[in-house]
């Protein structure tokens, strides 16, 4: 717990001219503009030490199955019920949920600590979050506090510090909007900037609440498990029909029904961009409803000690349950036996076998690298047709003197400015200098001279340390999607192989991958006999869902 003195600044900058000019953000008044965001925490820093940590992150546009099938002499005796490849939050939630249901699980993690994008690293006495920093689903109420629930399932709890604002937007034409924790304060601030759109604002965010309330009323489990799904339809028909109605819709279309002001629509784009890396027209309405309301319902809460503590607590909880986690365990192959996934092989040659294999690597890595040589299942072809890898990002982690940050500084800043295009890939130090310069000019005078530590991460860094193909931030739709309809769940075209994480329904985000973990554990538990299951209904539902996805 060294984080009484923890501060970060983050600058996601999908910004990049190429990103902005290659997606519909340009048609929504952001053309030629570079986007970035800044995040930092500031609690009692100067009391504990003189310096603070700062993290800047900026997105950059960047653009293998040894067949083990039926290998004779290989003992495929399963010691485990499930092997999970990777210990991101998606993998850890799936593993711990299965373990508490009585399964024996082995997690194989390539890196030296758990967490993936929700991990941390330490340098010069500072602790930096490597990625995740905006924690949805971490409150003490409702059904959507999935991070809190995942920890509590394995007897863990973390002290959290509420963020008074989720983000402070600094948009062109001097539009400054703070997203306050209190919904009424946020609406008051937004309507004060757009008084002529008060009704539209209330209607759009009102639809978000309708979705959030429906989601929050359900007990969240696998949507691929018919006994649960039909049970929820029976118990909460209106809520389920509401969700089914919004499933194929996107936030931008709904916003346009109520809002006409282009600057306000651009603001809603920025709201969606933060959580989906695409504009509102490409952001599923269910995801928008979830995040645009949870931040006011449960609020954004930051764990004391840093985000890395969540994964560490889950990993400890997993071991308490009698399951195992292996670090420096780089899975290079998923072993198939007569078309069924039965085990994994590590880069050092070790092999482990289980009844089921769950991959927390992205679907691109799972099917492109761990299953080399297999024909791509139809479902995966469909996924790759609809979704592409979101660009990676540039990150800057800095230690700065505390007095550069005013005491009431908001935690996250999103800055969108008109700047000339630059070549970021080739010149990361130059870019970092520019970003810091812009921050100094716009937000924190004296920033440059107060830096005592700085490290710049590029897409390559993220590829190496987060084990994500091209360092991708996650999947994003190639074109305008039909809401969440095309997003695959956890089962795959390979028997015994499941996927979990952000390339599964409902997509990017810690809370989203936690939900994917809960869904995956439920479906796997039913398949290995730890939950009720109906094979006939299963076949019918899985076929129906596969067909629905082809409509996306
Ligand atoms: N809220 C925020 O501020 C924020 C910021 C950044 C990222 N995130 C979210 O985090 C999400 C990612 O979570 P996730 O659970 O999908 O995955 P993840 O990428 O965080 O974790 C995957 C883990 O699998 C491991 N791995 C990959 N291939 C492996 C292999 N072959 N063998 C062994 N281990 C392997 C990686 O080392 C990593 O630890 C992203 O969608 C993103 O939205 C959130
Ligand atoms: C701010 C700044 C500056 C910076 C930034 C940072 C960051 C980057 C952050 C990020 C974040 C994120 C990404 C987030 C995200 C999140 C999300 C998206 C979430 C989501 C979630 C979702 C969910 C949970 C969903 C769910 C769903 C459901 C349950 C559904 C249901 C349905 C029904 C019932 C119907 C049925 C039908 C069929 C199946 C057909």
UniProtKB/TrEMBL annotation:
It is found in: Plastid, Chloroplast membrane. One of its GO terms (cellular component) is chloroplast membrane. The keyword Chloroplast applies. Its EC number is 5.2.1.13. It comes from the Eukaryota. GO terms for molecular function: carotenoid isomerase activity; oxidoreductase activity. It is a peripheral membrane protein. Pathway: Carotenoid biosynthesis; lycopene biosynthesis. The keyword NADP applies. Its cofactor is FAD; NAD(+); NADP(+). Residues 89-360 form the Amine oxidase domain. It catalyses: 7,7',9,9'-tetra-cis-lycopene = all-trans-lycopene. Keywords: Carotenoid biosynthesis, Chloroplast, FAD, Flavoprotein, Isomerase, Membrane, NAD, NADP, Plastid, Transit peptide. It holds the Pfam family Amino_oxidase. It is an enzyme of class 5 (isomerase). One of its GO terms (biological process) is carotenoid biosynthetic process. Belongs to the carotenoid/retinoid oxidoreductase family. CrtISO subfamily. This is prolycopene isomerase. The lineage of its organism: Eukaryota, Viridiplantae, Streptophyta, Embryophyta, Tracheophyta. The gene is LOC111311628.
């Amino acid at each position: 717990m060294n984080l009484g003195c923890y501060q970060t600044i983050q600058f996601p900058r999908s910004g990049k001219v190429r990103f902005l000019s290659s997606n519909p953000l340009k048609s929504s008044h952001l053309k030629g503009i570079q986007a970035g965001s800044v995040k930092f925490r500031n609690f009692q820093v100067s009391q504990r030490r003189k310096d603070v940590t700062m993290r800047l992150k900026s997105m950059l546009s960047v653009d293998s199955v040894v067949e083990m099938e039926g290998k004779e002499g290989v003992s495929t005796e399963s010691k485990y019920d499930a092997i999970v490849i990777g210990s991101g939050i998606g993998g850890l939630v799936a593993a711990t949920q299965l373990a508490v249901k009585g399964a024996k699980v082995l997690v194989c993690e390539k890196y030296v600590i758990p967490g993936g994008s929700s991990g941390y690293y330490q340098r010069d006495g500072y602790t930096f979050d490597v990625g995740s920093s905006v924690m949805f689903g971490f409150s003490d109420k409702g059904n959507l506090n999935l991070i809190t629930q995942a920890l509590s399932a394995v007897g863990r709890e973390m002290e959290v510090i509420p963020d008074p604002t989720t983000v402070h937007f600094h948009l062109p034409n001097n539009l400054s909007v703070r997203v306050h924790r209190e919904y009424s304060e946020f609406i008051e601030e937004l309507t004060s900037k757009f008084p002529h759109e008060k009704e539209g604002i209330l209607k759009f965010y009102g639809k978000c609440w309708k979705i959030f309330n429906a989601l929050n009323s359900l007990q969240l489990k696998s949507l691929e498990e018919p006994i649960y799904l039909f049970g929820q339809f029976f118990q909460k028909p209106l809520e389920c029909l509401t969700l089914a109605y919004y499933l194929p819709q996107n936030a931008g279309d709904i916003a346009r029904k109520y809002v006409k002001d282009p600057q306000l629509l651009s603001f809603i784009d920025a709201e969606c961009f933060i959580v989906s890396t695409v504009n509102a027209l490409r952001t599923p309405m269910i995801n928008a409803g979830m995040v645009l309301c949870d931040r006011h319902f449960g609020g954004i809460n930051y764990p004391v000690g840093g985000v890395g503590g969540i994964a560490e607590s889950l990993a400890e909880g997993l071991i308490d349950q009698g399951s195992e986690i292996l670090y420096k365990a780089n899975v290079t192959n998923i072993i198939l036996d007569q078309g069924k996934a039965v085990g994994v092989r590590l880069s050092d040659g070790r092999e482990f076998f289980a009844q089921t294999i769950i991959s927390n690597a992205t679907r691109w890595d799972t099917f492109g690298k761990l299953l080399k040589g297999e024909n791509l299942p139809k479902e995966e072809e469909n996924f790759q047709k609809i979704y592409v890898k979101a660009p990676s990002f540039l990150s800057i982690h800095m230690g700065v003197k505390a007095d550069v940050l005013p005491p009431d500084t908001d935690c996250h800043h999103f800055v969108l400015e008109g700047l000339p295009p630059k070549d970021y890939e080739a010149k990361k130090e130059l870019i970092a200098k520019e970003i810091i310069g812009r921050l100094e000019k716009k937000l924190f005078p004296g920033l440059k001279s107060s830096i005592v530590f700085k490290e710049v991460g590029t897409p390559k860094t993220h590829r190496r340390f987060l084990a994500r193909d091209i360092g991708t931030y996650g999947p994003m739709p190639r074109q305008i999607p039909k809401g969440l309809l095309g997003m695959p769940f956890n089962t795959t075209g390979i028997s015994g192989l499941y996927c979990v994480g952000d390339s599964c329904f409902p997509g990017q985000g810690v809370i989203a991958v936690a939900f994917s973990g809960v869904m995956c554990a439920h479906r796997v538990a039913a398949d290995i006999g730890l939950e009720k299951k109906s094979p006939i209904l299963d076949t019918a539902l899985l076929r129906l869902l596969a067909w629905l996805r082809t409509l996306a």
